[in-house]
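Hi R.,

Here's the chain you asked about this morning:
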Amino acid sequence: MSIEIIKKKLQLDIYGFSGTAINKDYEGAIFLLMKKLWKTVKSQDIKHKGLNIWVYEKNEKVFAGVELENPANQANELEQKSITLKKYAYYKHIGSYNLLKQVGENMRKELNNLGFETRLPYIEIYGHWINDETRLETELIMCLK
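And the predicted structure, written out as tokens:
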């Protein structure tokens, strides 16, 4: 696993919906938020960059969002989330989404073995969909103390 440690500021401004992962059902909570997000985006013809961005926060809070082409024209219903990270670990996973939970755990373990301490938020940025799941790309970003 080739993890990059980045000490350059990362600024993400995303729009979507937040919720809570009841009983730590993160996937279930985020899929409901994504469904609501894409229904709103499509019904209001909101121009976006097309990448799903999932944010995991303290107290089982989650956010499902997307970067907009023109945030000034964003729909009132969408929540805005601005994230600024000063130091973070980055890994690009290529392969099935079903492996992401394990890949994230492996990433966290490797970072701990290297002496880094992770903290929330944790971010997953999903690349554009393709039918070949062995070529799916997901960027994993872990905030470092």
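The chain has one domain: 4-144.

Let me know if you need anything else.
M.
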